[in-house]
């Protein structure tokens, strides 16, 4: 036997799974086909700049992150909890009035948010959730249908809510599960998502460093077989044996190893530009509220709150386009032009530092949301990954936790207490 359990895939799902199993005393061999751990959470260092492959953030209030990640070790950097929205009549700064009350007068003056629309939004976002958690419901419908039902209308819907949600979901069809969209909205309102000082890949690297047995990289699993009792994992160079195996590979690869449906995926592209000047005075995310008039769905000067991403004195701007749009693969010239419109500054001299196209970024969540999918596929083979829960760091880690718990229950091994638990961060921590 090479281990008690083999975990295939060292994304955050596999890494969380391995950690829970190790904590319970299991000998765990984690393997990954890639050259680094982290799967979709990847950062490249280019000429002194740190460029994450996806424009993503780590939300400290997502329960899995809050419970299982030692954020202090990631040296987190946070933007302001506000948004710059480009409107037809100029830029508008918006924020959650509970956390940014000083923005309230200008928000009221903007007439972007009426009391009626706000009430409708509050009713919509509270429906089907208890304490910010999604309720399993057959009544789940599409995002657009659900907003219509609750009469969420006007500028609040078109210029703010939908652009934000479409960017976060990487899905601009409006057909995402409303229950999932509400959960995403609650998550971002509950915390200020931020970035580790050294890039998002610092998260999976931390999780991997906390394992007792190092992850074996560049090991590509080509088949998983039950040998009863036990399993064989065939790799391109070897056969590994264990009592159990957990398949935590990328969604697009899962059906090559297991008889499960390949999930539908949403794609995004991420652009990283070096700008000679800061495009905006405040460290906030920006978007175009005027509808889809350009390819950029969200942008941020990352160095405005995480200067560690670039050499001193330089400005690094990231922008995201959605591949389900006709202009999702727009070239740098078009992306720069749209960024000029969003920020209201010239961008002709912004240099491209990096560009990543990720056709398999996030699993699609259509209604009804089913975030409690089967964990055990055969007697000794289990599955984990964000596609089994929700397309997020939280969803991936919870799926890994669940797979590990199922393995331990089947082996009759008690779970140990978590090694790391953090107090709730106060607003001042962020
Ligand atoms: C552009 C983008 C933006 C995102 N934004 C956010 C965000 O802001 N907030 C958030 O919470 N989440 C975000 N996410 C989602 C989050 O990153 C993912 O949900 C999560 O990282 C998925 O982890 P995973 O372990 O399930 O899968 P993966 O990260 O896909 O890991 C799977 C691993 O399996 C390995 N593998 C595949 N096939 C094999 C094989 N045959 N043998 C061995 N190994 C194999 C791969 O190399 C990979 O390392 C974003 C994702 C993307 C791409």
The end-to-end distance, rounded to whole angstroms, is 46 Å
Number of domains: 3
> Roughly how many Å is the radius of gyration?
22 Å
Number of strands: 20
Instruction: Return the CATH architecture of the largest domain.
Output: Alpha-Beta Complex
Identify the CATH class of the largest domain.
Alpha Beta
Shape: globular
The third-level CATH topology of the largest domain is Polyamine Oxidase, Chain A, domain 2
Strand residue content: 15-25%
Helical segment tally? 11
What brief labels describe this structure?
alpha+beta; FAD/NAD(P)-binding domain; Polyamine Oxidase, Chain A, domain 2; 3 domains; seven-stranded mixed sheet; 25% strand; disordered C terminus
How do the helices and strands line up, and which of them pair or pack?
Layout: E1 3-8, H1 12-23, E2 28-31, E3 43-46, E4 49-52, H2 63-68, E5 76-77, E6 82-87, E7 90-95, H3 104-109, H4 115-126, E8 129-130, E9 133-134, H5 143-149, H6 154-169, H7 178-190, E10 195-196, H8 202-209, E11 221-226, E12 231-235, E13 239-247, H9 254-257, E14 265-275, E15 285-288, E16 296-301, E17 315-322, H10 332-343, E18 351-363, E19 376-378, E20 381-383, H11 393-411
Parallel strand pairs: 1-2, 1-13, 6-15, 13-20
Antiparallel strand pairs: 3-4, 5-10, 6-7, 8-9, 11-12, 12-13, 14-17, 14-18, 15-16, 16-17, 19-20
Flavin-adenine dinucleotide binds at residues 8-14, 31-34, 39-41, 54, 56-57, 220-221, 248-250, 253, 268, 358, 361-362, 385-386, 391-396.
């Amino acid at each position: 036997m090479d281990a008690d359990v083999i975990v295939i895939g060292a994304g955050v799902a596999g890494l969380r799974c391995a950690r829970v199993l190790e904590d319970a005393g299991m000998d765990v061999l984690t393997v990954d086909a890639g050259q680094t751990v982290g799967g979709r959470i990847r950062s490249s260092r280019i000429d002194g700049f740190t460029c994450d492959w996806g424009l993503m953030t780590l939300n400290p209030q997502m329960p899995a992150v809050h419970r299982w990640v030692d954020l202090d070790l990631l040296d987190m950097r946070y933007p302001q909890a506000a948004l710059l929205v480009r409107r037809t009549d100029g830029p508008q700064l918006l924020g959650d009035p509970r956390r940014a009350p000083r923005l309230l007068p200008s928000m009221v003056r903007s007439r972007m948010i009426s009391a009626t629309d706000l009430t409708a939004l509050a009713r919509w976002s509270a429906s089907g959730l208890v304490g910010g958690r999604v309720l399993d419901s057959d009544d789940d419908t599409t995002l657009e249908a659900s907003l219509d039902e609750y009469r969420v209308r006007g500028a609040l819907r078109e210029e703010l809510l939908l652009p934000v949600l479409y960017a976060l979901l990487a899905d601009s069809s409006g057909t995402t599960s409303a229950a999932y969209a509400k959960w995403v909205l609650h998550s971002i309102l509950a915390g200020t998502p931020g970035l580790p000082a050294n890039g998002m890949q610092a998260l999976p690297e931390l999780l991997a460093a906390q394992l007792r047995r190092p992850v074996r990289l560049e090991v590509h699993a080509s088949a998983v077989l039950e040998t009863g009792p036990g399993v064989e994992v065939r790799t391109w160079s070897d056969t590994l044996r264990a009592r159990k195996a957990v398949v935590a590979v990328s969604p697009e690869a899962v059906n090559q190893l297991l008889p499960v449906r390949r999930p539908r995926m949403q794609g995004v592209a991420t652009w990283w530009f070096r700008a000679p000047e800061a495009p905006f005075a405040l460290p906030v995310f920006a978007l175009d509220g005027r509808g889809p008039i350009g390819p950029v769905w969200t942008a941020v000067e990352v160095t405005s709150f995480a200067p560690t991403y670039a050499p001193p004195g330089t400005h690094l701007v990231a922008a995201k386009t959605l591949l389900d749009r006709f202009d999702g693969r727009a070239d740098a010239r078009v992306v720069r032009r749209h960024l000029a419109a969003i920020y209201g500054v010239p961008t002709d001299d912004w240099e491209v530092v990096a560009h990543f196209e990720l056709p398999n970024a996030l699993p699609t969540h259509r209604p009804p949301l089913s975030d409690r999918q089967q964990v055990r596929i055969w007697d000794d083979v289990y599955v984990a990954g964000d596609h089994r829960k929700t397309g997020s760091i939280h969803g991936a880690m919870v799926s890994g936790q669940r797979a590990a718990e199922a393995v331990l229950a089947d082996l009759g091994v008690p779970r140990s207490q978590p090694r790391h638990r953090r107090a709730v961060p106060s607003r001042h921590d962020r």
